[in-house]
Design goal:
Length: about 400
């Protein structure tokens, strides 16, 4: 206890020295936290763009549909399956879909398109589809209208109020054909989505393809990606053949590879940052010990044991680290939270590249708790490793040299 009191008092005999030393640790925590928050935020943005625009966090479908995505491998959303989903506490929303391909025509123009049958209310809760309606109005469950992606509508030279002819093959080879009015135009941030999607009410889609009460998939949302492993583990225990559940990671392996590649680059940059932080802290600790060489010599000369002195120096280094880390967290939490609420907009070629990748052109930040405590822990470990130097110095300090300093 006396060692702790002495160490704490020593820090404030020369407060500016303590402030400078703790300042290097403060900036280390601030920079590493800011960088990690930005990195995690970009990953969360990528994932949210995938799950909220289209795929959801998880999907349930049949094993046959996984192997061959044909309308003949659809299923009926039974009460037993509904009960399993309703009983899973991590699930916030889910929606039924019937997806298939069809030719879509307007006068002399024809193009292949993805037809997605949805329940308008539940789909909007899962993917917030309504906010992407740039013209016209959103769908209602009891009408036969369609929503058309903007680039597809431009290609077909149609707008709100015009009609489209859908022609294709339905359930078990039945011919599927119909004329449907355009209720709204969708404009997504992703160019790929704008080229091919047509949304219809689920009942209308089931009638078009003669797949009554059948769906291709059940799209599931949870609170965030950190709940995914738990939700998948629980659902896989309950859902058996012929059904299967797949996460967005399994449905979008390209995105997972891109994130893993970016993490490798981010790890390299963070390693460089930690090296810079290490030398910054080491430099201030060396300065602190060098300035106190005479003081340390006097303490040894009046009878203080070197081992006791080493413990005091380690305690001082620990307190300096604690002060710097605490200050770093106090500043980094509100700063990252501000940018979490107000993402930084990107412009120029960077913004165009992100739009082409289907990502909104913003620099996002994350406020997950592990961003803060992991950085604090790493910087504290670095600080305590550097504390080895004053520990060794207390045993190797030459008394005659120190007293003349």
């Amino acid at each position: 206890m006396k060692i702790i009191i002495i160490a704490w008092r020593n820090l404030w005999r020369k407060p500016w020295r303590t402030v400078i030393t703790a300042g290097s640790i403060f900036f280390g925590v601030l920079l590493s936290t800011f960088m990690t928050s930005m990195q995690y935020g970009s990953y969360e943005a990528m994932i949210n763009n995938v799950v909220k625009f289209y795929s959801g966090y998880m999907q349930i479908f049949t094993e046959e549909y996984h192997e061959n995505k044909t309308i003949n491998n659809t299923f009926i959303f039974s009460d037993s399956l509904k009960q399993i989903v309703d009983n899973e506490s991590t699930i916030t929303h889910y929606t039924e879909r019937l997806e298939y391909f069809s030719l879509v025509s307007s006068e002399n123009l024809t193009k292949g398109s993805v037809i997605i049958g949805i329940d308008p209310d539940s789909e909007n809760k899962v993917t917030e589809l309504k906010k992407w309606v740039s013209k016209g109005q959103y769908l209602k469950s009891d009408e036969d209208g369609v929503l058309v992606a903007v680039d597809l509508a431009n290609y077909l030279k149609v707008g709100v109020g015009d009609s489209l002819i859908l022609y294709g093959q339905g359930y078990h080879g039945v011919m599927a054909a119909g004329i449907y009015p355009i209720k709204g135009i969708l404009e997504f941030p992703s160019p790929e989505l704008n080229k091919q999607f047509i949304y219809m009410p689920l009942k209308t889609t089931q009638e078009l393809f003669s797949a009554y009460d059948r769906i291709t998939s059940l799209v599931i949302m949870i609170e965030d990606n950190y709940q995914l492993s738990r939700a998948m583990r629980n659902l896989k225990k309950e859902i058996n053949s012929p059904f299967m559940v797949r996460s967005w990671e399994e449905l979008q392996p390209e995105l997972v590879q891109m994130i893993d590649g970016d993490k490798a680059g981010g790890l390299f940059m963070k390693t460089l940052l930690y090296i810079i932080i290490t030398f910054g802290i080491l430099g201030t600790i060396l300065m602190m010990v060098s300035e106190r060489k005479r003081e340390l010599g006097v303490m040894i000369a009046i009878g203080m044991q070197r081992f006791t002195l080493s413990k005091i120096l380690i305690a001082e280094t620990f307190f300096i680290g604690l002060i710097g880390i605490t200050a770093g967290l106090i500043f980094s939490v509100p700063m990252t939270y501000y940018y979490y609420l107000n993402p930084i907009p990107l412009v120029g070629d960077t913004a165009k590249t992100m739009i082409e990748m289907g990502i909104e052109p913003f620099m996002y930040f994350s406020i997950q708790p592990d961003i803060y405590y992991i950085q604090a822990l790493v910087v504290m470990i670095i600080t305590m490793l550097i504390a080895i130097y004053p520990f060794i110095k207390s045993f190797t300090l030459k008394l005659t040299t120190a007293l003349k300093a």
